[in-house]
Amino acid sequence: MKSKNLSLGVMITIPCILWAxxxxxxxxxxxxxxxxxxxxxxxxxxxxxxxxxxxNVPPKDCCTGFNQxxxxxxxxxxxxxxxxxxxxxxxxxxxxxxxGLPTRCHAPVNLTISDCPALLHLPPNSAxxxxxxxxxxxxxxxxxxxxxxxxxxxxQQSNLSPSLNTPQSMAVQxxxxxxSLILLLLLLLHxxxxxxxxxxxxxxxxxxxxxxxxxxxxxxxxxYTLSNSDNSFTIELSxxxxxxxxxxxxxxxDKIIKGKLGNGTVTGVSGIQAKKLFVxxxxxxxxxxxxxxxxxxxxxxxxxxxxxxxxxxxxxxKAKGLRDSFSLxxxxx
Length: 333
Description:
Layout: H1 17-20, H2 24-42, H3 48-51, H4 60-72, H5 74-78, H6 95-104, H7 116-119, H8 127-146, H9 152-160, H10 170-194, E1 221-226, E2 232-237, E3 242-246, E4 249-262, E5 265-276, E6 279-282, E7 285-289, E8 294-299, E9 302-307, H11 325-332
Antiparallel strand pairs: 1-2, 2-4, 3-4, 4-5, 5-6, 5-7, 7-8, 8-9
Helix pairs in contact: 2-10, 6-10, 8-10
């Protein structure tokens, strides 16, 4: 499905605290950083399968994008650190893999946690700046507890230049690596919510982020919008209403389809109907049954399950179909 604009993420409610708590020129700077970083981090989207545990090694494109960000746009790694514990993220990250990503990608990490307030133009005594200061103190405390005794000269150099790529700051480096991956996931979702996508972007590729198969929607999509406030969407087909047959079940897609995305679920559905005997009934919700590898379609209080494998591929939508019971009766007569 192609889209020219979005209002989305995931898949998932995205926190807007980052810019809501800012004001004056600080708000403006954060907004600019947010928009710029969203564009940059989309290029590192291929890291997601690795840090989520689905892939055994990070793809080459992942490392390329990740390394570019750590060198050229370190402020992007700082941007959402203060929201790292937000419970609405709703995504599972393999912590070990996230921590090891800079090593696997040979990333030239040139950032310290204490640099973040300046990079984000935060007032030194602000609550947001204190988040980074506290994190830096935790990292230094951990390092001092576990590291071998250092010479006075080495200790002085470490205090003067606490670079993340020095052995005494590995705890800080690991924390930054993990936070950068959390940032990546947040901004990928946020970018989907606020950026206008080109006509080459396909909404079918968005569905797996919500643990939904691509084939739930037909191929003939003209445009869609997805709200970042409640994940509600509106889809417009590129053709007239049409039909797709799944495992013997004929499904009707209206010109306009609406609903609300969740993790493995679609609620408040309108514009999709299924034929039951001699009548067409409206589908009101869709759930993924991972345990049984099925897709469950809700029709009011009733439901029907179809094999999930039938929805892995994107199907063409046919204009021909029996629209209502009258058409079927006429054909039988």
